[in-house]
Amino acid sequence: MEETLQKILDDYKKNNGNIITILQDIEKNFGFIPEYAVNWISKKLDIPASRFFGCATFYSQFHLRHRGKNIVTVCRGTACHVKGSERLINRLLMELDIPRDEDTTADLKFTVEKVNCIGACGIAPVTILNNEVHGKITLDKLMKEIKKIKAGE
Amino acid sequence: MKKNIIIKVCTGTGGIASGGEEVLSAFRDAVSSSGIKAIFNERCSAQKVGCRGFCAKDVLVDVIINGEKTTYKHIKQDMVQRIVDEHILNGKAVEEWTVGEDYHTFHDRQTKVVLSHCGEIDPEDINAYMAVGGYDAARKAVCSMTPKEIVDTVKNSNLRGRGGAGFPTGLKWELGMRIKSDIKYVICNGDEGDPGAFMDRSVMEGDPHSVIEGMIICAKATESGHGYIYVRAEYPLAVKRLQMAIDQCRENGFLGSNIFGSGFDFDLRIFQGAGAFVCGEATALMRSIEGKRGMPSPKLWRSAEKGLWDRPTVLNNVETFANIPRIIMNGAEWYSNLGTERSGGTKVFSLSGKVKNTGLIEVPFGTSLKKIIYDIGGGIEGGKAFKALQTGGPSGGCIPAESLEIEVDYESLAQAGSIMGSGGMVVLDETSCMVNTAKFFLEFTQAESCGKCTPCRIGTKRMLEILERITSGNGKEEDIDLLEELCRYIRAASLCGLGMTAPNPVLSTLRYFRDEYEAHIRDKRCPAAVCKDLITYSVVEELCTGCGACKRACPADAVRGTRKSPHRIDADACVKCGTCFDACKFKAIRKQ
User: Fold this and answer.
1) A63 in a domain, yes or no?
2) SS3 category, A85
3) B264-304 pLDDT, tens digit each
4) Is residue A65 part of a domain?
5) Does the residue A24 lie in any domain?
6) pLDDT tens digits for range B523-545
7) Distance from CA of B274 to the nearest CA of A (A)
């Protein structure tokens, strides 16, 4: 881990970065923001860890907990809302057996998250499955894709 | 026989989601394997183009043979070979796959200025942009115009900020020009956070060079040396294409030091947002670039005086910058004549929701809402009745059917109780509940409130609680008055635009659809049958064939019954997810 963090630190110095760019790099490398990583960098840079956590909790792109191996992002923009994305999420959580107030399956295979709008309103409702955008999605289509992922593992 | 064949495949976010990349590579494979180049001894190319606006018909493909264009819709990878065989090799278009009349009326009734390159040129190739006159305006501005001349042109064009507030761009630049400082910044606001708006994304993805060109011209007018493009995290493709464009500009000497050989220096970089709606607000956005929490600050100074790192900063929206090169080349008069007296030019709107032709449209200011929805949008999907048009995202409001005659500009929409915003238009039909819609936006603003000022942080929370109460059937008679009171305070006392406009969705729905609020509160009924706690699902026995589709689909095992006899829904077990309603082919499930 230290090796990756050192690289992030070097990039920060080279590119004239800031706290947000460091956090973005950590998130990209680890999939979430481990507490250890923040403390390590905070010491090296002599910037209070609270400033990092302040940013990490402010922006929705940063996550402080482990996320699932596969990410299902359901768009909650207005157009998607009008086309039934709320129901889609509720049913998805039910199908994946994710407990209330949680977003990740117990086996850390799937995380279901919401995004405000990805700007593909013309093909609403939209979901992103592991970085691949699917337009005009239905629960059946989505579950088929999820089954494919499950089978591939 | 010499032929010039160009194949254009839409690869915006919408196009890619529908399989645009696969279609493009299928065309490239087919073209090279069928030896078209050898047969015609002429150029044949398959290229990617940006979003052309009509996402409902993606993947859209243009086949242009000697300048004659045929457009295909809903193209999938496996359809490519037939187009190549029949159309490209034998000159006969595959009629059944071509777009119909609606595609042409959709496009013909628009006036494309900002979107004129989107869907026409390859966004990843600077030469394609230069072939249509790209960077001529920047060269002209940098090499042969004084800052004052540029500012005057923009002022006379009557261009107003496209981010939503509509501040005259020329005035902003003039202020930026007058203030002296050794370091100044130009920022492009690409943090398009309004749900239901995607015009900036399409411009950044489909015509990134026009944004950069606009920024170069602004830099020259204000004599700024550094620029930032702030792009939200949710738009990875826009970041990729902008970065490519910036790199190509540096190679060509359009960015960096001594640009166009004029001695003027300007360079810019991309800053990726990290997912916070409030960062669309100018002061919050600048804090975010500085690496801090994106919280707005009181506007003691204009950004043009003290902005990024306390330096003079001119900040404009993506669409505003994309307009600039056209204004410099075609003149201020041409642009101002396109619009109304109060607002010059055209505006891009993203039309979505329950309308037939969803997509991006560009019309001059002064076009009526009716024309936008019915002539360009093709009317309401599925023959349902129009209910309201939501404009301006969570800061805007809902406009009812009786106000559809209004001619769209900043003032007229404000008068109707909504706002222009960045240009999102979501059509709601009779199956949309207005209280639920207001609640949806409050959920959004409440979650996105940065928490700095009390009226917004706590006020929106209280409003949301009241709306939740109403939609769950626990509304009280005095709730409407309480909502209105809260709206007044939040609007007056909030620090930034997010809080000040947060009450708009509630105020406008209360103004036009008060009866729906009353139905929820007094009759415990949701007229549009949307609010989960106020509806029940039941089986209409006469229509039920006992096919069992609903029983198989139900995730809660709440449907009872045996095959070929009418089924029944167990109200205690039903979770009201609506699966049975969708699964039934005989309209035998009643929702009320």
Assistant:
1) no
2) helix
3) 999 999 999 998 899 999 999 999 999 999 999 888 888 88
4) no
5) yes
6) 999 999 889 889 999 999 989 99
7) 5
Contact A121 B274 (CB under 8 A): no
Whether A130 and A85 map to the same domain: the answer is yes
The domain ranges of chain B are 5-99, 126-338, 346-429, 434-522, 536-591
Residue A112, classed as helix, strand or coil, is strand
A45 in a structural domain: yes
Does one domain contain both A82 and A147? yes
Q: In what order do the strands lie in the sheet with B61-65?
A: B44-49, B5-10, B61-65, B68-72
Q: Phi, psi at residue B523, to the nearest 5°? A: -95, 0
Closest residue in A to B199 (Cα) is A119
Co-location of A25 and A88 in the same domain: no
Higher-pLDDT residue of B34, B353 = B353
With residues binned 3-state (H G I as helix, E B as strand, rest as coil), the percentages for chain A, rounded to 5, are 50, 10, 35
Asked whether residue B117 carries a pLDDT value surpassing 80, the answer given is yes
Q: Which burial class, exposed, middle or buried, applies to B587 when counting CB atoms under 10 A from its CB (0-12, 13-18, 19+)?
A: exposed
Domain B126-338 in CATH: superfamily?
NADH-ubiquinone oxidoreductase 51kDa subunit (3.40.50.11540)
Determine contact: A52 vs chain B, CB below 8 A: no
Domain B346-429 has CATH 3.10.20.600: yes
Question: Which CATH fold would you assign to the domain B536-591?
Answer: Alpha-Beta Plaits (3.30.70)
Q: How many domains does chain A have?
A: 2
**Do residues A75 and A36 both lie within one domain?**
no
Average pLDDT of the residues in A25-49: 94
| B5-99 maps to CATH 3.40.30.10 | yes
More confident position, B107 or A40: A40
pLDDT of residue B36: 62
Searching chain B, which residue's CA lies closest to the CA of residue A76? B195
- Shared-domain flag, residues A141 and A86: yes
Confidence of residue B2 (pLDDT cuts 50, 70, 90): low
List the domain range (segments joined by +) for residue A114. 70-152
- A54, A55, B242, B276 from B233: Cα distances, Å: 18, 15, 13, 9
A82 chain-B contacts, CB cut-off 8 A: 352-354, 426, 428, 432
The DSSP-derived string for B220-234 is: HHHT--EEEEEE-TT
pLDDT in tens, B430-468: 989 999 999 999 999 999 999 999 999 999 999 999 999
- Residue B92 Cα, gap to closest chain A Cα (Å): 30
Using a CB-CB distance cutoff of 8 angstroms, which residues of chain B are in contact with residue A55? 274, 291-293
CATH number of B434-522: 1.20.1440.230
More confident: B59 or B315: B315
Q: Identify whether residues A14 and A51 lie together within a single domain.
A: yes
Number of H helices, E strands in chain A: 7, 4
Least confident of B50-59, B77-86, B93-102, B375-384: B50-59
Q: Which amino acid does the sequence have at A98?
A: I
Same domain, A139 and A74: yes
User: What's the confidence (pLDDT) of residue B108?
Assistant: 86
Q: How many residues does chain B have?
A: 592
Which CATH number is A108's domain given? 3.40.30.10
Say yes or no to pLDDT of B37 above 60: no
Inter-axis angle of helices B199-206 and B318-330, to 10 degrees? Answer: 60
- Quickly tell me which residue has 């960045």 as its tokens: B422
Residue B285 confidence (pLDDT): 95
CB neighbour class for B175 (10 Å; exposed up to 12, middle 13-18, buried from 19): middle
Cα–Cα dist B293/A56, whole Å? 9
Residues A78 and A133 in one domain: yes
Confidence check: pLDDT of B38 > 90: no
Is residue B40 predicted with pLDDT exceeding 70?
no
Number of neighbouring beta carbons within 10 Å of residue A143: 14
End-to-end CA distance of chain B: 67
